[in-house]
Design brief:
333 residues; alpha+beta; Heat Shock Protein 90; five-stranded mixed β-sheet; 7 helices
């Protein structure tokens, strides 16, 4: 495919042609007038003086023209920078004052951003309404399962309770997806890693107090990601929960920042995970061990959420032989 010249290059080339043409035309007129004079010496003297004057004017015009071109095209660069800020989540709209030729484009872009935000918010509201409508009958079914258990129908109660729990997990899963989609399209979201990790560690240590495990946090207070706090809790919480279930004694959470991304690593010293299973367990409904309670949605939720935010998740072997979960998310400056 033939590559077209940029707008900047075309304007500069056009200005150069215009200046050269104007210079040639003015030179022709002045030299023609000068040679009509009777004195040869005067002709030469005037020719030199006017030639220097023309060259000075031409250079000044070229400099002034290039400055005007640069100033005019700076509006395009400014729009591009503002759009990049919107994409990074630093701004919600394309702000600034622009020339009359560019301002309509900026207004249309902001209108498009407004429409997109309204559509996303309506979708989230509908998802929330659906979840709320489903949770009420699920609560009723859960109560009926408890009554059935009290009446001596333990098998029926266990079956109903298990299915209710699965439905709740699926509702939470899809709500998390919808919330992350809205968060990813809503500029300005950010979350510090350390406060979220501290809160999750305290909760999980209480849940596993009888096992005597420890959770070491090596997370800098300055490290943050461009995500909502609820979604960070969802992702990091699932990884920590899995690590605490399988670890023998110690879980380590660390973080680092490089190339515009924050890397969060959760290591455990458990039995580890075979290489063939590391990609499989990230799929919805797959569990590493069917004997361990769960729906198989935890890691799938993490994978879907991190992809919606433009990040990635990878499972590998930790230094202690367990699993090392590496969560990479866009860093917040």
């Amino acid at each position: 495919m033939k590559r077209l010249l940029s707008l900047r290059a075309r304007i500069i080339i056009g200005t150069l042609f215009w200046t050269v043409g104007l210079f040639a035309a003015v030179s022709f007129v002045l030299i023609h007038v000068m040679f009509l004079a009777p004195e040869i010496i005067r002709q030469i003297h005037l020719a030199v003086r006017h030639l220097l004057l023309i060259i000075t004017i031409a250079i000044g015009c070229m400099i002034g023209g290039l400055w005007q071109i640069r100033k005019g095209l700076s509006a395009v660069d400014q729009v591009r920078a503002r759009l990049l800020s919107v994409h990074r989540g630093e701004e919600r709209r394309v702000t600034g004052t622009y020339p009359t030729e560019v301002q309509p484009l900026v207004d249309d872009l902001n209108t498009l951003l407004d429409d997109r935000e309204r559509i996303v918010q309506r979708a989230i509201a509908k998802a929330g309404d659906l979840a709320h409508g489903l949770k009420t009958p699920l609560a009723v079914l859960s109560q009926e399962a408890d009554r059935a258990a009290q009446s001596g129908h333990a098998d029926v109660a266990e079956l109903v309770g298990h299915q209710v729990d699965r439905m709740r997990k699926h509702i939470d899963y899809h709500l998390a997806q919808a919330r992350a989609a809205a968060s990813g399209s809503a500029p300005g979201s950010h979350c510090a890693i350390k406060p979220a990790a501290d809160a999750l560690a305290r909760t999980l240590l209480r849940l596993h107090a009888d096992r005597g495990i420890t959770i070491d946090l090596c997370v800098s207070p300055e490290h943050a990601v461009r995500c909502q706090r609820e979604d960070v809790d969802e992702m990091l919480g699932n990884l920590l929960d899995n690590a605490c279930k399988w670890t023998r004694s110690r879980v380590v959470v660390s973080s680092s920042v490089s190339n515009g991304h924050t890397l969060i690593i959760v290591d455990d010293d458990g039995p580890g995970l075979p290489l063939t299973m590391r990609e499989t367990v990230l799929r919805r409904g797959v569990r590493a061990d069917e004997a361990v309670p769960g729906s198989g949605l935890g890691l799938a939720i993490v994978r879907d959420l991190v992809e919606l935010y433009g990040g990635s998740i990878e499972l590998s072997e930790s230094a202690t032989g367990g699993v090392s979960a590496r969560l990479r998310l866009p860093a917040h400056a």
